[in-house]
């Protein structure tokens, strides 16, 4: 019985790992960091996060896309990625300090400014803003992406019991086999990979200008974190902002980023893909995410396995991502419905503003080429979810006050 349970947990953990793998290794590939270090630091960062949050929150941390532009900028300016590491390390420490500040003022004050008419639209923006990324991956082969998506959606209706929970894993395997048949798989990564290889760990270097370039990005990351943790809680049916507390989830993110920066990995953040997996499988056991973290750490050293996962075609992950990201968006809609938000003029203004500004930074930018931005420094601007959340919170406070039920 115990052996059977362990096998099931291992399969579910592998499913989570596959869901986050593509995005986590894409960040280091785009910035020049080592993908194996990114995997190792994501696994360790996830374990750090779970320790900070009393092992209550089913979250997997992966590479943060928000840091890509500033990492590239610093690397171009200094010709050395280690200065970007130093900037990310300081950003992680600021995150830690922010968590202590929130603990000091009290979680209840944070909750008062985040009613459902603010949180719901934020979740919708998180999910649907990611759809262009999924479609861009899918367009490499719409046939493979479409069939992979179709199986992932249909699978839970075709089987019973535990098999219903591994629809994503089954669909990825099916899509991979289909891709091999269509000759879409490049096996170079497997052939070139070593069976065992120590990741290219590096120590950070520090420069005040590099730090100034990178640290302001935490304003954007904080809003993303807030949305992800809220979405995760909405899926699970628990208020993680309250218990274990936003201060603890921020502390976990901050310490994970500090650790990653110390060894040469990208900054860590919560992942929407894994929230989507939770919503689909309806298995919310945090120990499964910790097991996935252990697998990620092992993969950092096992070159052949990492190489195999790198060969999963983008079309396959694109088909899966369409389902995962759509699920997140619909969770936001359900959050508004389940909390019985009144559709009066004040709430419509608040929700409409969040949706319009939020989509302008992602979905609208992809479709129509425009976005609404608020410059912070010469190099950093707030847009998308970050700006939408700030505007939404301020508008709600002005129109509705800070009452929980507006």
UniProtKB/TrEMBL annotation:
Membrane topology, record value: Multi-pass membrane protein
Alphabetical keyword list: Membrane, Transmembrane, Transmembrane helix, Transport
Predominant cellular place of this UniProt entry's protein: membrane
Transmembrane segments: 12-30, 36-52, 59-76, 88-106, 118-135, 141-159, 166-185, 205-223, 288-309, 315-333, 345-364, 376-399
GO CC annotations, alphabetized: plasma membrane
Subcellular location: Membrane
Top-level taxon of the source organism: Bacteria
Protein's UniProt keywords contain Transmembrane helix: yes
MF GO annotations: xanthine transmembrane transporter activity
Similarity field: Belongs to the nucleobase:cation symporter-2 (NCS2) (TC 2.A.40) family.
Record's protein name: Uracil-xanthine permease family protein
Native source organism of the sequence: Fenollaria massiliensis
